[in-house]
Design a protein that fits this description.
It is built from seven helices and no strands. With about 160 residues, the chain is an all-alpha fold. Helix 1 packs across helix 3 and helix 4 packs across helix 5. The radius of gyration is 19 Å and the shape is globular.
Amino acid sequence: MTAQQVIGLALRLVALFLVMKALTLVPIALGSESYAQSSGAGVYVSALLYLVMAVYLWKFPMSVAHRLLPRSSHTDKIITNSNQIAVAGVALLGLWLLVVVLPSLFYQVAKAIDLSGGGSLFESLAREGGGLILLTDLFRLVMACVLLFKARRIARFLTA
């Protein structure tokens, strides 16, 4: 089994996690509708995004794995050195963080657009106290991208 195949397998596990996460959001959306706080549309959209990401990861795990790690032949073994395992682990950590932060970031932006009512998004964020949450989500998005795209460099640092 190559490093890409391990990543592909892990991506399918992430897809299953995303489906479970989407299914847990439906009762939350129904609950928010019953309390008449909001329409729950943002939660439904987040659940839909989870499902879309899950379908993509389930159908095309190896295309994502080959983007994260360079292609290799099937004769390569995964345990050739600790650096390959570290690269796979860092890439998986970045992917997990990305999966967690994207729906939250989308929800915060959609909430700000909904609350702005045609006014400034930044004023609505400041008024509702969501600016710090949005800033935190943006920071987590940057960290996820760094972990994904600099996995080899981080792995060299970790295994040195």
